[in-house]
Task: inverse folding
């Protein structure tokens, strides 16, 4: 495990704590234990804090925290490496892990540039390992149903839509304060919806534009963004287009009703899909507790610590399921049959577009374009547009009212 912050605590920790007592089983690969054997963090403090409270059978991991913690971790006898560091530090850790021959699972967004994605993909092929990314919203039952309707032709031909994801101020102000300078909430959370749109509708990305606001997390003319509004235009093969607006913020008041509020609307030729995180489920008030230590609107589908009807405590949901799923894919590659058929098993695990880095190209393209547009905006030129796979190259940024074309990525996306 590289990085032991919020997402480790929410999803990886419950996975490791559960699987130690109940190893994975599949008739094809048999029983497979997935112990947490080593961790790398910046200071070692979070690892020590976790060890102090972890169940006895999970405490026995090595903790690396010096400047070369990741190098040390990948040299230790681990089979798979999970990367949950801040997003601009995914690439370096993933490269080291893949070069050391480890299967790799990276938190979203996988990387911030297509050139980095190319390098990781090639290294994964050269070293015969899996390189995958976590987009847990694809496992949300509501999003599975949406995709099923699209796949079955119940909902036909999406034309446009919007998505919004609002995070509370505490995320920008304290949780991420250490690494937030120069960052934006679009890269952090719009990617969930970029991936949902990309994976569910299977269209060709054509243009990216983005604007945003500053002045709360950092100075009004600085490089750190409070909120962003991203627009993606996709093309169908018959020339029709579809457009999606994705709005994100990490400066919503800490006591707003949604806490993390998520909303989508997709309009099709023959229908409309509306999803709303607050309207689908529970709203709960506890004096002195909500919305700070208990959320008002709890997403029990994502991740819920609960008492099972058979009186067992558990923590489960699609946020944990997505990690188990990756471990099953790795177990299938390593133990799912004879060694001489490993390459075929690896190839089949790589075909899974929901999590393979090879299928993350348009998402990374959108992130790279968005970050370049925001950087230009911060440098005094707002409203640039990035054209995808146009005459100038894979990603070509165009400032408004200017003949300049800045090619961010030359090969086709
Ligand atoms: N899937 C989701 O919905 C979701 C939610 C939150 C975060 N995330 C992703 O998870 C990642 C981490 O987010 P978080 O909320 O856990 O962040 P966090 O700030 O709470 O934790 C980051 C961790 O990374 C460690 N770290 C930082 N730099 C490091 C380095 N160079 N080497 C080793 N360790 C290093 C820190 O010590 C810390 O333990 C981000 O990519 C984020 O986008 C995903």
Result:
């Amino acid at each position: 495990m590289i990085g032991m912050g919020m997402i480790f605590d929410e999803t990886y920790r419950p996975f490791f704590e559960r699987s130690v007592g109940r190893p994975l089983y599949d008739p094809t690969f048999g029983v497979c234990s997935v112990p947490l054997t080593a961790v790398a963090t910046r200071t070692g403090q979070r690892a020590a804090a976790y060890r102090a409270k972890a169940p006895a059978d999970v405490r026995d991991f090595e903790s690396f925290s010096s400047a070369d913690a990741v190098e040390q971790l990948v040299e230790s006898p681990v089979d798979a490496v999970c990367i949950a560091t801040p997003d601009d530090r995914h690439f370096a850790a993933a490269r080291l892990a893949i070069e050391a021959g480890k299967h790799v699972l990276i938190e979203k967004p996988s990387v911030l540039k297509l050139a980095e994605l190319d390098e990781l993909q090639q290294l994964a092929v050269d070293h015969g390992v899996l390189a995958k990314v976590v987009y847990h919203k694809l496992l949300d039952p509501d999003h599975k149903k949406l995709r099923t309707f699209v796949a079955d032709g119940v909902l036909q031909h999406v034309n446009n839509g919007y998505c919004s994801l609002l995070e509370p101020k505490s995320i920008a102000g304290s949780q991420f304060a250490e690494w937030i300078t120069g960052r934006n909430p679009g890269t952090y959370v719009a990617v969930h919806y970029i991936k949902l749109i990309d994976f569910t509708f299977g269209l060709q990305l054509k243009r990216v534009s983005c604007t945003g606001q500053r002045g709360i997390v950092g100075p009004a003319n600085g490089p750190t963004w409070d909120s962003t509004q991203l627009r993606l235009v996709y093309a169908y093969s018959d020339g029709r287009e579809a457009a999606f607006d994705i709005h994100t913020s990490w400066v919503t008041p800490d006591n707003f009703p949604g806490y993390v509020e998520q909303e989508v609307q997709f309009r099709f030729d023959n229908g409309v899909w509306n999803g709303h995180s607050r309207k689908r489920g529970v709203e709960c008030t506890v004096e002195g507790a909500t919305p700070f230590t208990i959320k008002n609107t709890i997403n029990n589908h994502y991740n819920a610590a609960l008492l099972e009807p058979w009186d067992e405590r558990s923590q489960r949901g699609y946020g944990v399921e997505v990690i188990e799923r990756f471990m099953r894919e790795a177990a299938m590659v390593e133990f799912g049959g004879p060694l001489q058929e490993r390459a075929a098993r690896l190839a089949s695990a790589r075909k899974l577009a929901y999590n393979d880095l090879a299928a993350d190209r348009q998402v990374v393209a959108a992130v790279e374009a968005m970050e370049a547009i925001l950087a230009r905006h911060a440098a005094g030129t707002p409203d640039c547009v990035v054209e995808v796979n146009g005459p100038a190259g894979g990603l070509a940024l165009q400032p408004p009212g200017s003949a300049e074309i800045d090619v961010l990525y030359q090969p086709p996306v």
